[in-house]
């Protein structure tokens, strides 16, 4: 699995743990809904500013988004 | 300081701790030398694939690049 896929899976699992929809995460993180959907599928080469927005929306430190138990 | 600046400072400090030049890091991480220079100045909205290349070049986990003692 490449880093985009790992990152996408982590966003999805954290979002589902919080019990929120993609729409809700899109609203609270100010990131486009379809973009988040693509991210979760590992399709996007996400930038650091989007990474920060998602970490704020998910209320976790940015580091947590890269915790993959390698 | 925004996330781009924090990230840039972290890359620079880790690189300097390892005692390697920007040129050397550019070679081992396969990232353009001028791009690394811009990253260290906080000018670049770095993507996740570049982040991974830099973590490999600096021989640290990606998480370490986002450890800013917030």
Automatic annotation (TrEMBL), chains A, B:
<dbReference type="GO" id="GO:0003677">
    <property type="term" value="F:DNA binding"/>
</dbReference>
<dbReference type="InterPro" id="IPR001387">
    <property type="entry name" value="Cro/C1-type_HTH"/>
</dbReference>
<dbReference type="Pfam" id="PF01381">
    <property type="entry name" value="HTH_3"/>
</dbReference>
<keyword id="KW-0804">Transcription</keyword>
<protein>
    <submittedName>
        <fullName>DNA-binding transcriptional regulator, XRE-family HTH domain</fullName>
    </submittedName>
</protein>
<dbReference type="GO" id="GO:0003700">
    <property type="term" value="F:DNA-binding transcription factor activity"/>
</dbReference>
<keyword id="KW-0238">DNA-binding</keyword>
<feature type="domain" description="HTH cro/C1-type">
    <location>
        <begin position="11"/>
        <end position="65"/>
    </location>
</feature>
<dbReference type="InterPro" id="IPR050807">
    <property type="entry name" value="TransReg_Diox_bact_type"/>
</dbReference>
<dbReference type="GO" id="GO:0005829">
    <property type="term" value="C:cytosol"/>
</dbReference>
<keyword id="KW-0805">Transcription regulation</keyword>
<dbReference type="InterPro" id="IPR010982">
    <property type="entry name" value="Lambda_DNA-bd_dom_sf"/>
</dbReference>
